[in-house]
Fold:
Amino acid sequence: MTVIEAPIAVPRLVAQNISMFMCPACGGALEVNAPESRLGCQGCGHVYAIDDGIPRLFWPTESPGAKDVTDIVKAFYEETPFPNYDDLDSPERLRAKAEQGLFARLLNEEIAHGSRVLEAGCGTGQLSNYLGLTWGRTVFGADVCINSLTLANRFKQAHDVGGVTFLQMNLFRPAFRPETFDVVVSNGVLHHTGDPRGGFVSILRCLRPGGHVIIGLYNTYARLTNDARRLVFRLTGDRLTFLDPRLRRVALNAGRRRAWFMDQYKHPHESKHTFDEVLRWFDQSGVDFVASIPRCGATESFSPAERLFAPRARGSAFDRLVVQLGMLLSGGREGGFFTMIGRKKA
Structure:
């Protein structure tokens, strides 16, 4: 493979992997325009700027009749990036924080050497930066919000995280060629779009056959607890925040408290979904169910030694209902969030 020589302004991973990219406007091939430090389309001629090391590859959805909430969600996260990097001043601290949450550590263990990974809707890029710390993989973190991407890129540059690059992109208009990635992650993103299923189908195109897709969504049942707290906060002028278990944690500083509160209770748009709904997405899109967090089986528990890509049973409809009601009765921990993992059929 010929490595394209490019100035510092063009991220190294973009220059080395330019064949992975396509113009989000017309689907044409992109090329590095070295003198101007830009990316240009060989088809329609559109030129994309690279500002502070972040390629601006955003293109609007342009879907007449579809509910596009991109602008209001983008504006929300420009003002309140989530999560922030307070107290994360080194790769070691980022690694420690990520592995405390279990999911990131288990995902890191599953991703094979040499894999290409896309995080669609990376926010401030903490997961992408964490995955990029491991040598031998190529990670791209994409988001619509420049403030969030700037935080992500500052950490990457400050600590020379060589395995990751960040770019601005609309997940409904991907800037990557179909079947490019081995793993596609979209955690806590699709429920903030106007068309969650359409967003899933869009990012799935970027995944190669046999690759794994991971999506995290708010659950219809478990999120009811958050809805009740949101109503109480609105009626009391945002007092009684101790009702949220996460906000009762002494270790959280003011920045983290505000970021969590805003994301959970002041977000301008969210949708809620069930296990069965996402299983239908998988079935209709040629994706085999692999696993879920929590498990789909009513009597099964999630282990710290779990293999995320090891196929599990999807359970019965009754099992899945019991699991979701259990999430509700537990108080909708972590915002009533669940994760589904699938494997794209060959």
User: Anything to note?
Assistant: The radius of gyration is 20 Å.
